[in-house]
Specification:
The structure holds 2 protein chains of 2 kinds.
Chain A (H helix, E strand, L loop, with lengths): L2 E2 L13 H5 L4 H29 L10 H36 L7 H23 L20 H4 L2 H30 L12 H32 L13 H35 L6 H15 L14 H13 L1 H15 L8 H24 L1 H7 L3 H31 L5 H27 L14 H30 L37 E2 L1
Antiparallel strand pairs in A: 1-2
Helix pairs in contact in A: 2-3, 2-4, 2-16, 3-4, 3-6, 3-8, 3-14, 4-6, 6-7, 7-8, 7-9, 8-9, 8-11, 8-12, 8-14, 9-11, 11-12, 12-14, 12-15, 14-15, 15-16
Chain B lengths: L1 H34 L5
């Protein structure tokens, strides 16, 4: 693909001071704010996980009472899903999509500013949800986990109201950001940037945006009904008033399962950029890969109740959800094989982003295998609510979402900052996280199969040794992120200069137009649309 | 160029409004579903 990239560097003046960030309508600045926000939340969510693992280091109650444990557990999940993975992926979308498609900015820049600035308020509300139970009259802490199931959520104290408002604000922010991203991709592509010339990351975000627009409002509707049940005398989910608690589970998982794909798809898109670059080969079967992503999105919308096999649905219904869920392994398997075939006989090198990409393919496949086990109804009835499920979804989401973000950060850091990161430190970070992650979660499969229930702060002494291993792994995994922070600070502050194309293979296959811009790119890029030939 | 910019801007706003309307309808869907007795 050749381009006539035109950008006006003579008009590259930036606003200065705090106003540059508060009132920013620049996609790169807003992208940076999203990424910084996600990094801060990563440390908060990580700190809560460290506390949970410290409590679980040995049986009995050590440092947390059961209510505080469950509250921390809930906040860990909400922070990681809504505070880390989604904002980080949105930050990358903001930074990269306009540059990849040759647009001057996002389609609706003011809406973009608002989408971001709602997030700190949501974070404040979430913090309040943890604080208010400790105030006089605050009631029971949120002890439901991120699913907020009634009747427990109807009985929780004021913290639950704050959590519900947090979800409202986050939902509004996500929907506005998604509308913006979809509109940008549909309307703002440079002349000649046809659908099948789009980088895979852009396709991934188009589908993620559409998914979010469809699922987030349903969650918002569901939690609003929960709020009405709590304060305005309705009984939508209260069995005592003729309501149905299971209906809330359907509403939650109608959002919650596609949400998993919201977290995964941007990472799959990043793999579509990283693997061809470091294999120096075009993406294998690009078009079918796009179709399989569309297929994954569609199937992901209609299999939600596999999270609820134990609630007493009819055999016909559970069979439908079982078959639908197992079918998902076809497009996912296709994607993973596409990445493997892209590597096959490629001229591969293993810089940090590629190391993460290979790890994702291996470890996410493992999550896929345990996922198929969990999809099978009679088997799931045994695994349900055990640490096997915890191990499964952490194998899906840490490699599938978080490692994808790390791959993206290392891949694009030279473009964003104009400096190469320290490759030696990057590789140390990769091995440190990968080994400690496996140490943390691999053993949880076994304690789960042996029957250790999840979401409980105490456990039988027979599970002690594996829990000790898991906690040691978790502390090492947490500590590795201090190195991640140091690598980023070091790269922002200086280092070897990065060229416009910092990676030798970055123009292979279906790259975006970002490589036609210098590193770092000018404040305003593509003021005149480039021509894609 | 300006005419082109205006038409893109109008098109952006139109598409954003359509997507926003879809989101609003979906937010009301749980209540509608309950009214119809589904799932209960």
């Amino acid at each position: 693909m050749s381009t006539e990239a035109i950008h006006d560097e003579h008009h590259d003046h930036k606003p200065s001071g705090i106003g540059r960030w508060l009132f920013s309508t620049n996609h790169k600045d807003i992208g940076t704010m999203y990424l910084v926000f996600a990094l801060v939340m990563l440390f908060l969510g990580g700190a809560s996980a460290m506390l949970l693992r410290a409590e679980l280091f040995e049986p009995g109650l050590q440092i947390l009472d059961p209510d505080t444990y469950n509250n921390l557990l809930t906040n860990h999940a909400l922070l990681m899903v809504f505070g880390v993975v989604m904002p980080a992926a949105a930050g990358m979308a903001n930074w990269m999509i306009p540059m990849m498609i040759g647009a001057p900015d996002m389609a609706l820049p003011r809406l973009n500013n608002l989408s971001f600035w709602l997030l700190p308020f949501a974070a404040l509300m979430l913090t309040m949800s943890m604080v208010v139970p400790h105030l006089p009259g605050g009631g029971t802490p949120i002890n439901t986990g991120w699913t907020l199931y009634p009747p427990l959520s109807l009985q929780a104290g004021m913290g639950m109201d704050f959590a519900i408002f947090t979800l409202h604000i986050l939902g509004i922010s996500s929907i506005m950001a998604s509308i913006n991203i979809v509109t940008t991709i549909v309307n703002m592509r440079a002349p000649g940037m046809t659908w099948f010339k789009l980088p895979l990351f852009v396709w991934a975000w188009l589908l993620t945006g559409l998914l979010l627009i469809m699922i987030m409002p349903v969650l918002a509707g569901g939690v609003t009904m929960l709020l009405f049940d709590r304060h305005f005398g309705t009984a939508f989910f209260d069995a005592a008033g003729g309501g149905d608690p299971v209906l809330f589970q359907h509403l939650f998982w109608f959002f919650g399962h596609p949400e998993v794909y919201v977290l995964l798809l941007p990472s799959i898109g990043m793999l579509g950029m990283v693997v061809p670059t470091f294999s120096r080969k075009p993406l294998f079967a690009y078009k079918p890969l796009v179709y399989s992503m569309i297929c994954l999105t569609a199937l992901g919308m209609v299999v939600w109740a596999h999270h609820q096999y134990t609630v007493g649905m009819s055999q016909a219904v559970t069979t439908y959800f079982m078959i639908g869920t197992i079918l998902i392994s076809i497009p996912v398997g296709y994607m993973l094989f596409s990445f493997i075939f892209t590597m096959w006989r490629g001229s591969m090198t293993f810089e940090t982003p590629m190391l993460f990409a290979v790890a994702i393919v291996l470890m996410f496949s493992f999550a896929g295998v345990t996922g198929v086990m969990l999809a099978v109804v009679p088997a799931d009835l045994q695994y349900h609510d055990t640490y096997f499920v915890v191990a499964h979804f952490h194998y899906a989401l840490i490699p599938g979402a978080l490692f994808g973000i790390y791959a993206g950060v290392f891949y694009w850091l030279p473009k964003w900052t104009g400096h190469m990161y320290d490759e030696r430190l990057g590789k140390i970070f990769f091995w440190w996280t990968t080994i400690s992650f496996n140490l943390t979660f691999f053993v949880q499969h076994f304690v789960g199969l042996a029957g250790m229930p999840r979401r409980i702060s105490d456990y039988s002494p027979v599970f002690t040794r594996f829990n000790e291993i898991s906690s040691i792994g978790a502390f090492a995994f947490g500590a590795s992120h201090l190195l991640f922070l140091w690598i980023i600070i070091k790269t922002v502050r200086g280092g070897k200069k990065a060229g416009a194309k910092p990676w030798e293979g970055s123009q292979v296959g279906t790259p975006g137009l970002e490589w036609t811009l210098p590193s770092p790119p000018p404040f305003h890029s593509f003021s005149t649309p480039p021509m894609v030939k | 160029m300006k005419e082109h910019d205006d038409s893109v801007r109008k098109s952006n706003i139109r598409l954003a409004l359509i997507l926003g309307a879809v989101a609003l309808l979906l937010a009301a869907w749980p209540l509608y579903m309950l009214r119809g007795g589904l799932g209960s």
